Amino acid sequence: MDLFGTAGIRGDTRDRVTPTLALRVGRAAAHETDAAAPTFVVGRDGRETGSALASAVGAGLQSGGASGVRGGRLPTPALGLAARRRPGIMVTASHNPPADNGLKLFRDGEEYDSDAEGAVERFLAAERGTGGGAADAAPASDRPVGWDEWGDVEHAAVLPDYRRAVIDYARDHGTPLDGLRVAADAGNGMAARAAPAVLRELGAEVVTLNGNVDGHFPGRESKPTPESLADLRAFVADAASGGEGAGFALGMGHDGDADRIVVVDDDGDVVHEDTVLAVLAEHFTRASDAGDPVVVTTPNSSARVDERVAAAGGRVERVRLGALHEGIAAARSEGDSETVVVFAGEPWKHIHPDLGPWIDGVASAAVLARLVAAEGLDALRAPITERPYRKVSVDCPDDRKAAAMSTLETALPAAFPDAATDTEHGVRLEVDGGWTLVRPSGTEPYVRVYAEHDDVDALVERVVAVVEDAVDDAG
Question: Distance between CA 163 and CA 45 in Å, rounded?
Answer without folding.
Answer: 16
